[in-house]
From TrEMBL:
UniProt cross-references to PANTHER family, sorted A to Z: MITOGEN-ACTIVATED PROTEIN KINASE KINASE KINASE 20-RELATED, SERINE_THREONINE-PROTEIN KINASE NEKL-3
MF terms in GO: ATP binding; protein serine/threonine kinase activity
Gene3D superfamilies linked: Phosphorylase Kinase, domain 1, Tetratricopeptide repeat domain, Transferase(Phosphotransferase) domain 1
Organism: Kitasatospora kifunensis (Streptomyces kifunensis)
Protein name: non-specific serine/threonine protein kinase
Length: 398
């Protein structure tokens, strides 16, 4: 099978998109409808036990995608078989996605928290639809989440090849078998127990932990080590995350299924409440700053300090909202008489803000004016004041 061939008298193969033990995924052109599609192909290799398992999984994916309909689940258009010489292929025709996988995105950078929350809610909605159709994915991981285009607004859940339908009485996942991806596998799945809604949600917890913090909850480099961590070790609490979000991650990663959220809809609701908290950050920062005008500058400093780290986490350390909040903090330092600290913070903030926002930006000019009005300390400024305020996004504690 090669580019230019016509599959099923309908799909003109354009080029390979991916290749693995599952077979080959091609970009193709549907000549009947006139659209680009993705075609997953699997060559029949008779007499091989592994080949029989691959075919069973291929059939399972077709069955699942036919029964699950949701905007964030990849669409199936067609399926069939085709002969080539003395051999034959099964093929599955799906919508063509032009974006990156979540794994590829996370290798580049951690997204701002509001966008990450949007992706998380889409993931939960997709799995909620699958669960409602009596389908357990069993392999939720960043590689199986893909964006529809380069703008990364919409995502799709992929690869239902090892999904469980109902009681899962099939021929390729026997009782007691451990199947799935080690970094994202629930404790009960390590014990060979059947997949459930809550085992999928545990995997979601692993994915969201990585999405929100930039690090996996369990990081052993061996399969045995990962098994031990999933079974026995509590995950560290991400200190920089808003409390509601940190609580949700720990609930999703509970060792006992009964201690996790009941379903994907509940997770989605809690994610929405966390998004509301993020949207409320600016109001809380403004309220703290206004309190200083009422003679409560010291109290306002205590209120504003933890908000700076939350701004940096939510929007990025170079975002204008984060920069303005750091500037507000420096202003409050002057109001409580901590002039040396105020000067040193502004001195660190100015090049940071200039690099992030650009020379001549109004926020940069405000910092320049404030710095010019603040007395220069007699002693050199200690380094790291700004870094201490911005915090460490991936910081966790057990």
């Amino acid at each position: 099978m090669r580019a230019g061939e016509l599959l099923g008298e309908r799909y003109r193969l354009v080029g390979e998109l991916g290749r693995g033990g599952f077979g080959v995924v091609w970009e193709a052109y549907d000549q009947r409808i006139g659209r680009q599609v993705a075609v997953k192909t699997l060559r029949h290799q008779h007499g091989s036990r592994d080949a029989a398992t691959d075919l069973a999984r291929f059939a399972r994916e077709m069955e699942v995608l036919a029964r699950v309909s949701h905007p964030s689940v990849v669409l199936i258009f067609d399926q069939g078989e085709a002969a080539e010489g003395e051999g034959s292929y099964s093929y599955l025709v799906m919508e063509l996605l032009n974006g990156l996988t979540l794994k590829q995105v996370l290798l580049e950078q951690r997204p701002a928290l509001p966008r990450a929350l949007s992706w998380a809610r889409q993931l939960c909605a997709a799995l909620g639809a699958a669960h409602a159709a009596d389908v357990i994915h069993r392999d939720v991981k960043p590689e199986n989440i893909m964006f529809t285009g380069p703008d990364q607004q919409l995502l799709k859940v992929l690869d239902f090849g090892i999904a469980q339908i109902g009681d899962n009485q099939d021929g390729f996942t026997t009782e007691g078998a451990v199947i799935g991806s080690a970094p994202y596998l629930a404790p009960e799945r390590w014990r060979g127990e059947p997949g459930t809604v809550r085992s999928d949600l545990y995997s979601v917890g692993c994915v969201l932990f990585e999405l929100f913090t930039g690090a996996r909850p369990f990081t052993s480099t061996s399969t045995y080590g990962l098994m031990a961590q999933h079974l026995d070790d509590p995950p560290g609490r991400p200190q920089a995350l808003p409390a509601e979000l940190a609580d949700l991650l720990l609930d999703l990663l509970a060792k006992e299924p009964a201690d996790r959220p009941a379903d994907a809809a509940e997770v989605g609701r809690r994610l929405e409440r966390a998004a509301d908290t993020i949207r409320d950050l600016r109001r809380r920062a403004d309220a703290a700053f206004l309190a200083a005008g009422e003679g409560k500058a010291a109290e306002a400093l205590d209120q504003l300090r933890p908000l700076i780290e939350q701004f940096a986490l939510a929007f990025g350390p170079g975002d204008g909202r984060t920069v303005r909040t750091c500037h507000d903090f420096a202003v409050l330092l002057t109001r409580v008489g901590a002039l040396d600290q105020a000067y040193c913070l502004l001195d660190e903030l100015l090049p940071h803000a200039t690099a992030a926002l650009g020379e001549g930006h109004p926020d940069v000019e405000d910092i320049q004016r404030r710095l010019a009005r603040t007395p220069t300390p007699e002693r050199p400024c200690p380094p790291g004041l700004l870094a201490a305020l911005l915090g460490t996004v991936n910081r966790t504690s057990s």
